[in-house]
Amino acid sequence: MEQSSFLKERETCYFKKKVSLLGCNEPIKNEFQDIVSSCSLPLENKSNIGVNISRVHFDYNSNNRFDYFLWNIDCSQSRSFLRTTFYNGAEAIIVFISEDNLEHILRYFEEIRNRIPIVFIQFCIILNNKSKSELLDNELNGSQFQEFIQSNEVEFNELQNATDTFSQISNFFIEKVRQDKFESKFNISFIARKKIIGENEIDDRCSEYFPPSMSLVNSKIIQYERIKNLVKNLGINVDQANPDWIVIENENFGRFSVYLRNGSVYYTPYECENCSNTNCPNYHKKKHYICIEAESTGWSNVRGIREEELLILSKIIALKDATEKSLPKSILEQIHHIQDCAKLKN
Questions:
Q1: Is 58 found in the same domain as 187?
Q2: 238 and 149 inside one domain
Q3: Which of 219, 236, 270 is the endpoint of a domain?
Q4: pLDDT band for position 281 (50/70/90)?
Q5: Cα separation of 123 and 339, whole Å?
Q6: Which of 10, 48, 129, 172 gives 120 a disulfide partner, CB atoms 3.0 to 4.6 angstroms apart?
Q7: What is the pTM of this model?
Q8: For residue 172, with 0-12 CB atoms within 10 Å meaning exposed, 13-18 middle and 19 or more buried, which class applies?
Q9: What is the DSSP string of 15-43?
Q10: 203 and 226 assigned to the same domain
Q11: Residue 173 CA neighbour count, 13 Å, CB half
């Protein structure tokens, strides 16, 4: 049975997803959250803890309905050290971009991609005094943006109202389920200011982009290109179609996928490769996250290889020829749990 039939077999499918809202214009983000949300926590939470959470009911069509939990994250300087802690679990991110600060696209992109392996990012450029064609011809046509757009297959579209953002996100999730895709997607959307907040008078001046903190950024960003070069020297193939991933075929367990940007490890048992049991709750979840942590501090005298990179390299090397005897008990228990589920569903 084809995977696309999964959605057709049910009269109505309900999805619950976390979406983060970023951008340097806090008043517009707050107004947007108020307009699209069916219920919300008090906005004072954003001032107190750096985020406010609301619920957005969205009917993509008669068969597919979503409950989005919208995390409106404070991106001001005073909260910059805190915001990335709220990214965990987000499968889509909306980033409001001022027409006068398009360079924020590149900065937020790197910040997000270094923390979330698979994500839908929708950059919403708010049009006020400039047009879409003007920005495309004069500003997004530069070499820096063109390289970003082409290398990441960025798509462009226009939004007619505030809820259109969730139509784009819902389409990403539906296609992800139908086609069993584990790939990120990136959109740049254009929307007129009044279509987001109407005629409301608010201060919509955009502040500067403030990185989480230079010390945090420097210590957390993985030098993944350096890792790829070392991995090639070890005789491990790098998938050119998905250069951010190392795929390890282990004859004893199955397939391990290591995301080079943050070191996350995902596991697929051999039993799941050709699974046809559409009733299995994990039928469309072919990659299972495995927690692998260092028990002690690592050390390297190789330039560009710090403890963060060393841990990822250790994961790759350990998983390449892993056996029941070589892996720690904590990792084996996770693998066996996933394998047991795979055996049951077949």
A1: yes
A2: no
A3: 219
A4: low
A5: 39
A6: 172
A7: 0.67
A8: buried
A9: EEEEEEEEES-HHHHHHHHHHH-SEE--T
A10: no
A11: 24
